[in-house]
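Quiz preparation item.
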């Protein structure tokens, strides 16, 4: 089974191909070009180097967020179009789930995605099965650190960990992952996508949608009062 995963939820555009149980190709770029400009070119270039035709792909995996609203829409739209044109199934994978996958299975993990204005999307995952124990949400980085400062040991992973490195490491029992683990989203999404497909957790062109995480109503009301 050949699987193509596409991620445009962060500042990185990335794609990866899995053939049976092996990642055979991945492509990631972080630059000023928009996802819209680079994504299809990147996918085409990777498949050419692998000598794989797009028609050979058996399953498409869309990384559906949270993250950049515009980026997510682009990635989801591309996956929908490819799957519809080729009549192939789709699996949706959460960005936070993909970030935390395969990282320190013996510890609780908090993946972070930059939401700007010192706010972050986060969730909490643990165990070898990467179980989600705190649902994806949105907080300021200081609110997040305060929330978990007395709840044990945590490993932070994600594209914005280095932005807040000093604040994270100032708290006992908090650590961060190496930078090389912060851009593995599409590769991890291939593996998760295969697992979900085998469980029958499948989407299609009509049911697939972005996963946006917004402020709670109470938080929005509080922000509006301050304006």
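Solution:
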């Amino acid at each position: 089974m050949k699987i193509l995963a596409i991620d445009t939820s962060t500042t990185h555009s990335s794609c990866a191909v899995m053939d049976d149980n092996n990642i055979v190709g991945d492509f990631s770029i972080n630059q000023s070009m928009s996802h819209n400009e680079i994504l299809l070119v990147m996918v085409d270039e990777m498949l050419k180097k692998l000598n794989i035709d797009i028609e050979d792909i058996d399953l498409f995996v869309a990384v559906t967020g949270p993250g950049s609203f515009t980026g997510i829409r682009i990635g989801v739209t591309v996956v929908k179009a490819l799957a519809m044109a080729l009549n192939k199934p789709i699996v949706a994978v959460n960005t936070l789930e993909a970030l935390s996958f395969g990282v320190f299975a013996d510890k609780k993990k908090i993946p972070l995605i930059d939401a700007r204005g010192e706010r972050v999307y986060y969730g909490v995952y643990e165990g070898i099965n990467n179980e989600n124990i705190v649902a994806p949400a949105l907080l300021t980085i200081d609110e997040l650190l305060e929330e978990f400062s007395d709840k044990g040991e945590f490993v932070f992973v994600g594209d914005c960990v280095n932005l807040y490195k000093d604040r994270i490491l100032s708290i006992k029992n908090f650590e961060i992952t190496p930078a090389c683990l912060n851009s593995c989203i599409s590769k991890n999404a291939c593996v998760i996508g295969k697992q979900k497909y085998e469980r029958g957790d499948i989407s299609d062109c009509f049911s697939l949608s972005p996963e946006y995480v917004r402020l709670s109503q109470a938080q929005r009301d509080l922000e509006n009062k301050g304006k």
